[in-house]
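Summary of Year 1 activities. Much of the first year was spent building the evaluation harness for sequence design. The harness presents a backbone, in tokenized form, and records the residue chosen at every position. We chose the following record to illustrate the format because it has been used consistently in internal testing since the harness was completed.
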């Protein structure tokens, strides 16, 4: 009986070592693939965020021009809101690109370190807030295109300033990712 047990141990040890080695190699290979995936993800995300940062920066002056125009023409009660918007060059807003983040958040989110994950989630949340504010802004504009009163112009100005502040917050988070 003792001999059988020793033979069993001698036979099982190489099998166990082989299985453990195979598991270790498989884990190592999976980790290597994950690191490559995250590296490619960050590379693509950085390109997307650079484009977004540039677009926010480029759209900001025209948005501020609209705020200034609304302020300047607020006391002119003969000029409709639509004309003030046209004089300022329209209502311009940047497109916040989050395609790579959305793809990762639907698949391998657990591969991200917590700090970056939090910033990316904040950017997504800021983008959703921007969409909401833009929709409210456009609803207000469409409802008041022909209005000439000071109240409507000041309210639109405040809404634009709030939109700009939210964009600045999103841009700061994007730059935090770009500078890491």
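For this record, the design step produced the sequence shown next.
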């Amino acid at each position: 009986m003792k001999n059988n047990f020793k033979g069993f141990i001698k036979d099982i040890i190489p099998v166990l070592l082989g299985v453990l080695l195979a598991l270790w190699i498989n884990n190592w290979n999976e980790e290597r693939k994950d690191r490559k995936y995250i590296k490619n993800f960050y590379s693509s995300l950085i390109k997307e965020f650079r484009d977004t940062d540039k677009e926010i920066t480029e759209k900001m002056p025209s948005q501020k021009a609209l705020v200034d125009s609304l302020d300047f023409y607020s006391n002119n009660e003969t000029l409709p809101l639509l004309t003030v918007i046209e004089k300022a060059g329209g209502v311009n807003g940047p497109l916040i690109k989050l395609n790579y983040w959305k793809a990762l958040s639907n698949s391998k989110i657990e591969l991200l370190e917590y700090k970056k994950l939090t910033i990316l989630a904040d950017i997504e949340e800021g983008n959703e807030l921007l969409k909401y504010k833009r929709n409210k802004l456009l609803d207000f504009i469409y409802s008041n295109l022909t209005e000439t009163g000071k109240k409507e112009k000041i309210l639109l100005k405040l809404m634009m300033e709030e939109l700009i502040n939210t964009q600045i917050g999103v841009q700061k988070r994007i730059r935090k990712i770009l500078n890491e």
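The two ends are 64 Å apart (CA to CA). Quantitative recovery figures across the full test set are reported in Table 2.
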